[in-house]
Amino acid sequence: MAKAALVTGGAKRIGRSIALALAEESYDIALHYGTSAAEAEKTAGEIRQLGVECATFRCDLADEQEVLSLLPRVVEKMPGLEILVNNASIFEKGKIVDTEPDFYRQHVAINFTAPYFLSRDFARICKKGQIINLLDTRVTSSDFNYAIYTITKKALAELTKISAREFAPDIRVNAIAPGIILPPPGGDRQVFEKMALKIPLKKTGGLDYVVQSVKFILKNDFLTGQLIYLDGGENLE
Fold first, then answer.
1. Going from the N-terminus, what domains does the chain have, and what CATH number goes with each?
2. Distance CA 167, CA 67 (A)
3. What is the Cα–Cα distance from 201 to 199, expressed in whole angstroms?
4. pLDDT tens-digit profile of 96-119?
5. Are 52 and 77 within 8 A, CB to CB?
6. d(CA 80, CA 95)
7. What are phi and psi of 66, to 5 degrees?
8. What's the rounded Cα separation, in Å, for the pair 44 and 188?
9. pLDDT band for position 192 (50/70/90)?
10. How confident is the model at residue 220 (pLDDT cuts 50, 70, 90)?
């Protein structure tokens, strides 16, 4: 039975890089996407060229019933599932005073509720393997400009520790908190580069650093409940 990995939000950006990296480690890939169907098929084609299987799974992570059906669908097609990467998230600016209920519900559903129940179902159905949660270096801050986003990532950091304790020893759970890795979609590259001057290492990161961190977690079987700050020291400020 071929080993497999589910990557949420795997069609592009960080999720795509993680999916390709896992494929290079000989994992079949269950590639989740929400609205990026074309990008998902393109990434799936790149993955198949690496000599492994790749199946795409559409799921609206803001829809509870769709979330609850995702793991069973994946395992039916890929019974060797042993890695869950909770990468998908929504990242939108908004202070508490500007937050409306729909904006709040969308962030909580996608950034926290979906990973919570996907982790639960992974433990129930797969029973062994690894979970990797993608956070944000903002979990060390009180950034009110991205209030509910930051709160959901802090909650996911706590879920990482609690689930690592509950699911041990058969499932290891760890997290990565990226900092200045990629400019936002449509963002100004020069502004992005200037941001790096404010952090201790004074340089931007890149997708290769994320891949290196994922592979480190995968191969270090004495590591669980840990958070890797992949941010050039930004969390120290």
1. 4-236 (3.40.50.720)
2. 20
3. 6
4. 999 999 999 999 999 999 999 999
5. no
6. 42
7. -65, -40
8. 28
9. confident
10. very high
CB contact set of 187 (below 8 Å; sequence gap of 6+): none
Beta strands in 119-222 (DSSP E): 129-134, 171-178
Provide the 3-class DSSP secondary structure of residue 52: coil
CB-based contact 89:10 (threshold 8 Å):
no
The whole-number pLDDT of residue 188 equals 78
Closest Cα to residue 230, out of 109, 132, 151? 132
pTM for the complete prediction? 0.96
Residue indicated by tokens 């930004």: 234
For 44-61, what is each residue's pLDDT tens digit? 999 999 999 999 999 999
Q: What angle do CA 112, 35, 152 make, to 5 degrees?
A: 15
| 45 residue type, one letter | G
Instruction: Flag whether pLDDT at 37 surpasses 80.
Output: yes
Give the closest residue to 147 by CA, choosing from 92, 195, 87. 92
Q: Which helix (H) or strand (E) holds 154?
A: helix 147-167
- Residue 154's CB is within 10 A of a number of other CB atoms, namely 18
Looking at residue 39, its amino acid is E
CA distance 56 to 32: 6
> What is residue 52's predicted lDDT score, i.e. its pLDDT?
98
Pairing mode of beta strands 227-230, 28-33: unpaired
